[in-house]
Structure formats: structure tokens, C-alpha cells
From TrEMBL:
MF terms (GO), sorted A to Z: D-arabinono-1,4-lactone oxidase activity; FAD binding; galactonolactone dehydrogenase activity
Keyword Transmembrane: no
UniProt KW keywords: Oxidoreductase
InterPro entries (UniProt xref): ALO_C, FAD-bd_PCMH, FAD-bd_PCMH-like_sf, FAD-bd_PCMH_sub1, FAD-bd_PCMH_sub2, FAD_lactone_oxidase-like, GL_DH, Oxid_FAD_bind_N
Pfam families per record: ALO, FAD_binding_4
Protein name per the record: Galactono-1,4-lactone dehydrogenase 2, mitochondrial
Any Gene Ontology CC annotation: membrane
Source taxonomy: Eukaryota, Sar, Stramenopiles, Ochrophyta, Bacillariophyta
Superkingdom field: Eukaryota
Occurrences of domain FAD-binding PCMH-type (ranges): 96-268
Keyword Oxidoreductase in annotation: yes
Length: 591
């Protein structure tokens, strides 16, 4: 019922097998200002102002008219009524792009990719690669030209001796897992959504959770990419120029179009999942023990509630028989959802006579069969920006999770990939929190400050705020990159759902999230050198924020090397877009 794939529309007909039906009132929503500025001294502020002057013109050209940014992008439906354009909408419903059909390619072979890239390079035409369009920020979108990788979806080879799998970039993660299953193998790490394509899975630095588990890009052993200037090249960690390999693993699609990925595998295994609820103090006190004891562990913090949902996963064969494999007497679905359904019926009655709202009226019959995500959306839709209302919803959700405490055992892919909710704004950051040997406490301090700020400022923050952990990545552009291979990193994601198709409500939610909520996390993140997940980095509303972002990027990533490599591989910048140029500048330009 909840499926998160891109929606592609060519006029009124569907162009992709993984598309979902489009509402007749689909809207393009405003850009999200969720960018991190550095914590600046007076000297740094002076440098920021100098930098601002130096690239003001370039930034305005590459990022659109940022000063006085129009917070509502134009509606695209009218222009999409003919047969000349393709419209793509990302899974979270927050970004869309309209591409001329003669600049939207769907190659079916690597040879076709090479031919298209060669032609576009000769003509200086944009050709930005796109996978499943899962990135909440529409990172792959470029109105001047795009290439869908969906038809390059073959699993090329499973090497059981070396435990590797080679797949084309458009192969979905779920496809690769199924191809590995007969060989008793699986991928070493999984993000939450199975419909990701392998190219995007790697290029944006997707991650799961686990103290000793790096983001997925770390496990890549070979890449085959098509570049504008050098044609097709293969990169491995054994290359003389392994620097290029480690830079390209998280290349954001702008060093070359990834057409094949080879990744390490591990033996397939069942996981025993344990879900339980702790208090905030218990979560802080038990964090080290839980991270050390469990292969996978994540926290889901519930604002305004002294409740932290803990989900751990461990290979079944590593656990003693005393650990339950299945909850012996689980609650029925009706009992499980009762805190949510009771509140939904109560709210439906309370709002029934309120002529200022257009909410749906629910009955016991109409809510039957609704899942968790649907119930939460329905609850929030009544008044999503009323902090007292959100508190009631969060309280019911905390009770739902207490009802859900218990164990289950399934194949690893069925537990590590889960429902992320419906249309939503989301921002996730990553920051170092010590080493494998010693957590320095940044992770818990960050969460304590974030929750205190939410509750102090009465921000209508729905649940959950998800916190995950990872080891360091060897990829230079990964948010979790560290020179210390024993590093430990925490990832924290805030969210605001878009539970209704009402345009006024969606606009109000967007303004609330991009304003007060993200401003709070940005301010806190400055102290911890927190950097955005690449799929959640948005174009800012202010040229001053662009200047701050550029300074931060230079302090956190090898921007000069990245830009020099972009200039070498893609001298005409046909693989880029304004988000990439906004963050790093144009290829070849030292920022």
C-alpha cells in the first residue's frame, strides 16, 4: 500500500513500470533550506563575505535567483498536457522536473549510454543520470536533460568464490538480493528502501545502521563508468590511481555515469529483531552496551514523549537459545493499532462540527484495514502544525510501539528494509561521535539538545526522529568519510509528513519545516561538524547560506580535488545540475 518510487508522466501516459498513479492535483513544492553553515569566528565571517562577493554572480546563475527566492515553484501540469515533455516526481512528492522528450533518454544497453554521452558531450547538452528518483531532494533532476537507468537492470555475475556481485546500475537492490539468494549470499549493508537502483544506492552514499558497518559505498570493489571526456573506464581499489576510485564511489553522478557496480557480499542469514521502548535516560545510559552487543541498532525518538523505540537485529546463529526468536503471544492487529484507531475516532468526532476544516470523517468500518503509516497520516492531517495536536498523535504512537514490543525472525533483507512513511520533508545529517573503541558522547548530546529545542520552541515535530550509526567509509565524498578507519558516526533524521493533498496545508508544513525546525537542527549541527546526507541536501533560500555552505564543504570534503576531477572527466559539465554546482562551484574552479 505504501510504495515509494518515482512517478514519471509523459503527457497522460505512464513511461515506467515502477511508476505510481499521479493525483490530478500534483504540485511542485518549494525548495527546502536545510543547509549547514560552519561555526564561524570573526575571521571566518570575513572569509565568508569575501567568498560571497567572489561567486555571487556565478551562484545566481547556477542556483536560480536565490535572493528573494520564490517559495512556490510553478505548477507544471499545464505544460505537461502535450506529447513533448516528460515529468518526473520524486518518491517523497517534494520535487518534480519537466524534461523535453528529446532530452530524456532511456537506454537499454551500455553501448547506447556511451553513444548518448558522446553525442551530448559533443553538443554540450546536459545528461544527468537518474535511478529510482528516491532522493528526497531530487538530486538527479536536471530540466535540460536526463538519462533513466531503469532498463539497464541486469545482474551480470555472481562470483561465489570471491563473494562479489556485479550488477548494472539500474538493477534494483531487491533484484540483486533475489539473484544472490540461491547462492546463499546477500549484500553487506542495506538502506531502508528496496526499490533503490544500484547506481544511486552507491553514488549518494546510502547507509544502514550498525556500529561496525560502513555505508554501502565502502563495499564497492569495482565501478564501470561512462565519462564524457574519456569514454568508458573501469575503476578498482587495486588501480594505480586508487584516489580516483575512492572519489568516484560517491561521485553524485557527476564524475561519470555508473553503468556497472561490483560489490562485496556476505553469507545470507536470518536476523532476530527485537523491538522495545526505553526512557530517554535509559537510551543514553544503555547506548554503548546496545551498540556493542548488536550488529544493527537504531533509535527512534518520539518528541514530547519520554519514549525511545529501540530496534536491534542480530544473526540468528550468533544468539544463544535463551533469546526468543518470536514473540510467543503477540497482540492482534486490532489491539496493536488501538491507541491510533481510538484517537482517530475521537478526533473525527471532535472535528466533525468544525466548519473551518476539510478533514475526513472516520468510522470503525472505514478505518478497518488501515496500516500504521496510513493511520499516522490520517491523524496528523487534522491539524499537523498545532503542537498540542501533534503531542496527542505522538503519545498514541508511543503506545503503539509499546504494544509492538517483541521479537521476530526473518531473512536480513526483510527486516533491514522497512516502511519509511508517505510523502514527507526529511533532513538527515551525519557527524563523528568518537571511535569504535570509545564513543565521545556527541550522539547523545546532539539528541538531547535537539529534543530540548523542539520542546522549548514548541515545534510541531512528529515522530520519529531516527538515529542510526555507522563505521567510517573509505569514499572521500561520503558524509562518513574519515582518515581514521576506526571512526564512528551517527546519522540523525528529522521529518515532517505531508499527509494531505490540500495545497494550503502542504505549503504551511513546508514553511514550518524549512524554517524553525531545520534552523534548530542547523544551529545544533554546527557544534558537531554535521553534514547533510547527499540525497537530502537542498538549495538554500539565501546567497549568504550558499556562502556558508561552500565554506563548510571546503572544510569537510576535498572540494578542490573533486572539482579538478569533474573538470577532467566532464569538462563541459553535462553531468551536473544546480544542486551540485551550488555546493561545489563549477568544475575546475577552485572555491
Amino acid at each position: 500500500m505504501w510504495r515509494f518510487s518515482p512517478r514519471l508522466i509523459r503527457s497522460s501516459r505512464w513511461t515506467s513500470t515502477f511508476a505510481r498513479p499521479e493525483s490530478s492535483t500534483t504540485r511542485a513544492l518549494p525548495s527546502l533550506s536545510v543547509l549547514l553553515s560552519s561555526h564561524k569566528s570573526h575571521h571566518q565571517q570575513d572569509e565568508s563575505h569575501k567568498l560571497l562577493v567572489s561567486f555571487l554572480g556565478m551562484a545566481m546563475a547556477s542556483c536560480g535567483i536565490i535572493l528573494g527566492w520564490n517559495t512556490r515553484q510553478p505548477c507544471l501540469e499545464e505544460a505537461a498536457d502535450d506529447d513533448t515533455t516528460t515529468k518526473i516526481l520524486n518518491w517523497s512528492g517534494t520535487h518534480s522536473v519537466l524534461v523535453p522528450n528529446d532530452s530524456y533518454w532511456e537506454p537499454e544497453s551500455i553501448a547506447e549510454v556511451e553513444a548518448i554521452v558522446q553525442k551530448c558531450h559533443a553538443q554540450g547538452r546536459s545528461v544527468r543520470p537518474v535511478g529510482s528518483a528516491l532522493s528526497p531532494n531530487g538530486l538527479a533532476f536536471e530540466a535540460q536533460g536526463m538519462m533513466s537507468m531503469a532498463h539497464l537492470d541486469s545482474v551480470v555475475k555472481v562470483d561465489t568464490v570471491n563473494r562479489t556481485v556485479t550488477a548494472q546500475a539500474g538493477a534494483r537492490v531487491s533484484q540483486v538480493i533475489e539473484a544472490l539468494r540461491p547462492h546463499n549470499l546477500t549484500l553487506p549493508n542495506l538502506a531502508s528502501i528496496a526499490e533503490q537502483q544500484m547506481g544511486g544506492f552507491v553514488q549518494v552514499g546510502a547507509h544502514g545502521t550498525g556500529k561496525a558497518i560502513a555505508p554501502v559505498d565502502h563495499y564497492v570493489t569495482k565501478l564501470k563508468i561512462v565519462t564524457p571526456s574519456q569514454g568508458m573506464i573501469e575503476l578498482t581499489s587495486q588501480d594505480e590511481d586508487d584516489e580516483l576510485f575512492h572519489l568516484t564511489k560517491v561521485g553524485l553522478g557527476c564524475l561519470g555515469i555508473v553503468v556497472e557496480v561490483t560489490m562485496q557480499c556476505i553469507p545470507a542469514h536470518d536476523l532476530v529483531e527485537h523491538t522495545f521502548v526505553l526512557t530517554r535516560q535509559q537510551a543514553r545510559e544503555q547506548r554503548d552496551e546496545l551498540l556493542e552487543k548488536h550488529k544493527h541498532m537504531r533509535y527512534m525518538w518520539i518528541p514530547f514523549e519520554d519514549a525511545v523505540v529501540v530496534v536491534t537485529n542480530d544473526p540468528e546463529e550468533t544468539l544463544p537459545q535463551s533469546v526468543p526468536r518470536q514473540t510467543s503471544a503477540p497482540l492482534s492487529t486490532k489491539q496493536l493499532f488501538q491507541p491510533l484507531t481510538d484517537l482517530l475516532l475521537t478526533l473525527s468526532q471532535e472535528y466533525a462540527d468544525n466548519s473551518t476544516t476539510t478533514t475526513t470523517t472516520y468510522t470503525k468500518e472505514t478505518i478497518e484495514g488501515m496500516g500504521f503509516g496510513e493511520l499516522r497520516d490520517a491523524l496528523l492531517a487534522f491539524d499537523p502544525l498545532n503542537v498540542d495536536h501533534v503531542k496527542r498523535v505522538n503519545k498514541a504512537e508511543a503506545e503503539f510501539w509499546r504494544n509492538s514490543e517483541g521479537y521476530q525472525t526473518k531473512p536480513s533483507d526483510q527486516l533491514l528494509q522497512f516502511d519509511c512513511g508517505g510523502q514527507q520533508w526529511v533532513w538527515e545529517v551525519c557527524f563523528p561521535t568518537g571511535s569504535q573503541e570509545r564513543n565521545n558522547g556527541n550522539d547523545m548530546d546532539f539528541m538531547e539538545e535537539l529534543l530540548a529545542g523542539i520542546e522549548r520552541d514548541n515545534i510541531p515535530a512528529p515522530a520519529p526522529i531516527e538515529q542510526r550509526w555507522s563505521a567510517s567509509s573509505s569514499s572521500y565524498m561520503s558524509p562518513a568519510y574519515s582518515r581514521d578507519p576506526q571512526g564512528l558516526h551517527s546519522w540523525v533524521g528529522i521529518i515532517h509528513y505531508l499527509p494531505s493533498d490540500e495545497e494550503w496545508q502542504r505549503r504551511a508544513i513546508t514553511e514550518s519545516f524549512t524554517g524553525k525546525y531545520c534552523d534548530l537542527m542547523r544551529k545544533i549541527g554546527q557544534q558537531y561538524s554535521a553534514t547533510s546526507h547527499w540525497a537530502k541536501l537542498e538549495i538554500p533560500k539565501s546567497i549568504f547560506q550558499v556562502a556558508d555552505l561552500r565554506l563548510f564543504m571546503q572544510s569537510r570534503f576535498p572540494v578542490a580535488l573533486f572539482n579538478e576531477t569533474r573538470a577532467r572527466m566532464d569538462p563541459k559539465s553535462i553531468l551536473s545540475n544546480r544542486t551540485v554546482d551550488m555546493a561545489f562551484g563549477k568544475p575546475g574552479h577552485r572555491q
